Amino acid sequence: MCFQRKAGLGRYNSTRPEWLAAYRNARCMRSSGKEPDASLSGIAWKAQLIVAHERGRIDSLAVPLGARLIAKNLIDEILAEEN
């Protein structure tokens, strides 16, 4: 007899409030300079890993328009040289 697999995250399958709480705790730990705690398991550990290794994002609204225009022109110039 075959059983269909259910979509999910395995042991990381939790409710939205649980994930939000795990991310909040992970961000608090990260802001205090602590590294991910490998003794944890489940969503607490996964959230700490995600927060610790996320890439810094640039908020385009925080960057002045002139700087964005200069960056766009540089990218266009580099792409034109490649072609």
Please give a structural write-up.
The protein is mainly α and 83 residues long. The protein has one domain. 54% of the residues lie in helices and 0% in strands. It has helices at residues 16-31, 42-52, 65-82. Helix 1 crosses helix 2. The longest helix is centred in the last third of the chain and has 18 residues, at 65-82. It is elongated and about 50 Å long. It starts with 15 loop residues before the first helix and ends with a helix. The model has no long low-confidence stretch (mean pLDDT 82).
Helix coverage percent of residues?
Answer: 40-55%
The number of helices is 3
User: What is the mean pLDDT?
Assistant: 82
How many E strands?
Answer: 0
Order of helices and strands: HHH
Structural class: mainly alpha
Query: So what's the overall shape?
Result: elongated
Key words describing this protein structure:
mainly alpha, single chain, 83 residues
Note the topology.
Blueprint: H1 16-31, H2 42-52, H3 65-82
Helix pairs in contact: 1-2
What's this model, at a glance?
The chain has 83 residues and is mostly helical. The chain has helices at 16-31, 42-52, 65-82.
